[in-house]
Amino acid sequence: MEMVTRMVADRPVVIFSRSTCCMSHAIKTLISGFGANPTVYELDEIQNGQQVERELHKMGCKPSVPVVFIGQQLIGGPNQVMTLQVKNQLSPLLIRAGAIWI
Fold first, then answer.
1. pLDDT tens, residue by residue, 63-88
2. How many Cα atoms occupy the beta-carbon half-sphere of 4 within 13 Å?
3. Which residues fall within 8 angstroms of residue 83, CB to CB, at 6 or more apart?
4. Disulfide: which of 12, 28, 43, 56 matches 99 by Cβ 3.0-4.6 Å?
């Protein structure tokens, strides 16, 4: 978990993704639609992607992508992100993390 912790440090929004995953694309589009500029790690394109994916699994992320961190806090996968959106709680989280300004 040390590697993942370092990767999300000091970043308002981090998305662990896979370039071929349609759910990853949907979550990136949703968060970017708020005006946020998330840091995106494409696990199939970075050198240590498999190791990061194993760490995400150990953190309880199943499936391992997409996984979203907002304000260095693990939010979860697409179900958790979409639940926050439906409850109108995603935007306030992004604001508190400094990812967007309204």
1. 779 999 999 999 999 999 999 999 99
2. 25
3. none
4. 12
**Helices 78-86 + 22-33 axis angle, to 10:** 30
Residue 14 contacts residue 61 (beta carbons within 8 Å):
no
Whose CA is closest to 71, among 8, 6, 1, 12?
Answer: 12
With a cut of 90, say whether residue 41 has pLDDT above it.
yes
Two structure tokens written together for 55: 């760490």
Give the β-pairing of 13-17 and 67-70.
antiparallel
| Spatial CB neighbours of 20, under 8 Å, sequence gap ≥ 6 | 44
**What's the 3-state SS for 39-92?**
EEEECCCCCCHHHHHHHHHHCCCCCCCCEEEECCEEEECHHHHHHHHHCCCHHH
39-42 and 13-17 beta bridge pairing: parallel
